[in-house]
Amino acid sequence: MLFKIKTLIVFLVMILAIIGCTNDEKEEPLEPIAKEAEDQNNDENQPEENSKEEQSPSAAEEEPNIEVDPLPTTFKELEKLKVGVDAGPLYESGKDTQEQNKEIAEHFKDLPLPEDKANPSELELDYLFREMLKRVQLDFQGPEQIMKEIKFQSLGNPDIEDARYQFKENLNVVILLDASGSMAQVIDGKTKMAAAKDAISNFLGELPEETNVALRVYGHKGTGSDSDKELSCSSSELVYGFDSYESSSFDRALSQVKPAGWTPTGLALSDAQKDLSSYDGKKNTNIVYLVSDGIETCDTNPVESAKELYDSEITPIINVLGFDVDGEGQNHLQEIADSVDGIYQTVSDENELAKELDKVNDIAQAWEEWKDKGMESLDYQKTTNSLKIFSYVTDQSVKETDERNSMNFIVRALEEHGYISSEAKRYLLEKNKEYHAWIQSEVNQLEEELDALNESSYKEAVKALEEKYELNVE
């Protein structure tokens, strides 16, 4: 009996021991659980926006923080857009199409492509379209450019208030020719320098005999190497004039010039002011043409130099021609022209260069007629189709087609090589079609407005364009 009692006591003690151990094991997590509750309570006390970010991390992915620059809504806004770094033809004739598609896709794969290729948002595709367009943006020229053309080609018209656009006793034409190393590049089997020389020589040969002409070249010494930069950036030389054009003397002077080094455009403009210092605007109509194929590379501040020349007593008209120039160069040269209310035009070859320079010949012939009539006012009653501004309409239509095609090429290449989905391709192609259809409608409207001005006087034409596009030609 005593043995049974002892056995029962031992058994009860063991049970109690087991229960105690079990309770100890259950109490172990109490501290972490309490801490988790405390952390949760702290989270609830955090600012509301932090709470939202943590509770729905996918929200930012679904609605990316993207700001899409608006597309232009008027021609005036369109012509203000900067030329893209990849503006121009994307395909080379005679080269394998598939290989070129691969190169295009590789070149443009750094565009902001959608993160989820299979499910891109409309916002992401709109952003991709806008950034793609910036890369291939062409230099559309609309009402503001046309206003400048009307004013320049109406030079001598007494209705123009700006005295620099009135005929004076003398007509002086100065050409500033870029002779940097890049002018040695070949176009249609001819270096740009050789093409420029021929176009300029032919142009000057057509001017009235009494016209004073001058040619200054710059960047023609040294090489493009860093060791020659100081020499090249200080090279600017008046190689002909001021005098009437004489072909043998001019050709002899020009034959010594070879494309060589850097591009001190600002220096050439400053030196042109010295060249013209004896030809003040009271007795001289002064026209300066800057012909270059790229950006300033010598830190001689061409915009500031152009302004100083423009604001001087010389009161010149300063126009700029970009010869086979890239997007960066176009923007740079456009800035120079805009700073002096001048015309900027890109020319791709010798024929286009000659065509632009020929506008001065028309002005010079009118000046000669004015002189022959005893410097009496000429009859400037109508703008007429003889003004070359009307060719700009055709040029803008060509640009619309070229830009639209470039965008299509890129979109198709990106889809073909797996960077965007077929659905994204369809969306982008449709957006491109609609956008460039709008540009063409603006071009057509501009053409109608110009046709209506054919029989208008200078004042009537200017007033109509000013009111329509909120411009100021004077």
UniProtKB/TrEMBL annotation:
Gene3D superfamilies: von Willebrand factor, type A domain. Residues 172-360 form the VWFA domain. Residues 29-72 are annotated as: Disordered. InterPro entries: VWF_A, vWFA_dom_sf. Signal peptide: none annotated. This is VWA domain-containing protein. It comes from Salinibacillus xinjiangensis.
